[in-house]
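Q: Could you fold this chain for me?
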Amino acid sequence: MSPTHYPSRLLESAVNEFSKLPGIGKKTALRLVLYLLKQDKEMVHKFSDTLRKLRDEIQYCQSCYNISDSPTCEICANPKRDHSIICVVENIRDVMAIENTQQFKGIFHVLGGVISPMDGIGPDDLIITPLEEKLKKGEVKEIILALSTTMEGDTTNFFLYKKFSKYSVDISTIARGVSVGDELEYADEVTLGRSLVNRLPFDQTL
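A: Sure. Below is the predicted structure, expressed as structure tokens.
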């Protein structure tokens, strides 16, 4: 297949940058760039300024590692949330999915991934130590393991269960209303909400 010839180096450069985004091929990238070219300069400037501000100013909550506009996210800063119940999730998208169910009143801990030997990701690559520090202080009554029901998610669940079972804390997991192999962000809100409400002690799932 012959390479695409662009009438402008600026256009080609913009297409190349857009095509670096996940799921965006060169044809889609070209369509997006041409769309932006048709818009007012103010709209495009606002678009680029928003992206720059996002990258420069976004923070990670110092308590749960969720994305935040301030050192402590809105969830952790909310005195109405039950700080003795922590829901452990893989990423920020899972926090959003669970929050959308409006069924969870505790706080979160974002691991930043799951154990995946195939991808070279081990326990040391995840954000586990800060969570364990909270357990050592006796601040936590229950840990809910809410990782995706994939092999990697199950492996991580079991690792955390073994690591945390020495502490005086209840360890539970979401009920299997979420199908095996599913990622939380793709579960519908009702199913995910029921899975949280009907969570099980982790040792009953072994």
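A (continued): The mean pLDDT is 89.
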